[in-house]
Amino acid sequence: MAGINPFVRDEGGQWILLSGLIIAVGLIVLSILLNQAMMAGGRSPEAILKFPKDDIREFRWEVHRWAHHNVSRLSDGAYISNLTNQTMLLYGSRGISVNLSVLDVNATNQTANLTLFITDGPTTCNFRREYVDCIHESI
Amino acid sequence: MGLKDGVFRDDEAVSTTVGYILMTGVALIFLAIIMVTCVSIFVDNPSRVVMRSGFTDVGNAISTKIVDVYIVCPDNGTLTSVFTLPAEIGGSEYKVDASIGTGQDQMVEVSDLSGKVTVRMTINGIAESVSVSGSTMSGKWEHEIHYNSS
């Protein structure tokens, strides 16, 4: 017996073996938890959320406001053309394309019908007949 | 008699080497069984969690966009909004359906093609005043929300 290596015959490490087993089970449980947790985080698809809601409202409001203050010039073709160009330049600098034109004007009732067009590329909004009432509308 | 005595009365167990081989074999078989049976824990469940989370994002985003379109849409005119969606979520293609339910209870439903995960989002009852309909598949290059007043 003296010839056998005492390291091989040493049986006093039962607690070490048992603790090794406990650590192994613990690692498996942790890896399952981690596996579940790391998948939970997500990133919202921002491309869907991009929508020029404020630009559309602002453009529409600006046109209404402008019409209220320039009722007498709504029939002036040259003035409208100049205004359209100015507005296109203003919005163009923000990457938005706009256009507007006057369909008809009722000078007596101070009402008008306009067409408005606004697009930022993905979103296109076309107001075919936007009614402006310069007397009854409050801006 | 001698054999019986040898098998049943032998209380010295096996040698260290054979014992080691036996234990390793049992552990390997155990591991193999665990690997086969735990696919649902390690693969299916996480992918379901990812899908549910991703579908909720997509459903929320689309329902928000529909409501946004409703808010700024012209009384007389059209509004078209083009957007992209992730082609796959959790390794699965999915379908977005905006025609679930009617009126105030109408919802946007996002579901994977196998039907394992389905998520529904409300559209704040706007279907009561405008008709909302249509569906799209995630595999399409572009998706579109179109409003027409007439």
Automatic annotation (TrEMBL), chain A:
<protein>
    <submittedName>
        <fullName>Uncharacterized protein</fullName>
    </submittedName>
</protein>
<keyword id="KW-0472">Membrane</keyword>
<keyword id="KW-1133">Transmembrane helix</keyword>
<feature type="transmembrane region" description="Helical">
    <location>
        <begin position="15"/>
        <end position="34"/>
    </location>
</feature>
<keyword id="KW-0812">Transmembrane</keyword>
Automatic annotation (TrEMBL), chain B:
<dbReference type="InterPro" id="IPR055690">
    <property type="entry name" value="DUF7266"/>
</dbReference>
<feature type="transmembrane region" description="Helical">
    <location>
        <begin position="20"/>
        <end position="43"/>
    </location>
</feature>
<dbReference type="Pfam" id="PF23928">
    <property type="entry name" value="DUF7266"/>
</dbReference>
<keyword id="KW-1133">Transmembrane helix</keyword>
<protein>
    <submittedName>
        <fullName>Uncharacterized protein</fullName>
    </submittedName>
</protein>
<keyword id="KW-0812">Transmembrane</keyword>
<keyword id="KW-0472">Membrane</keyword>
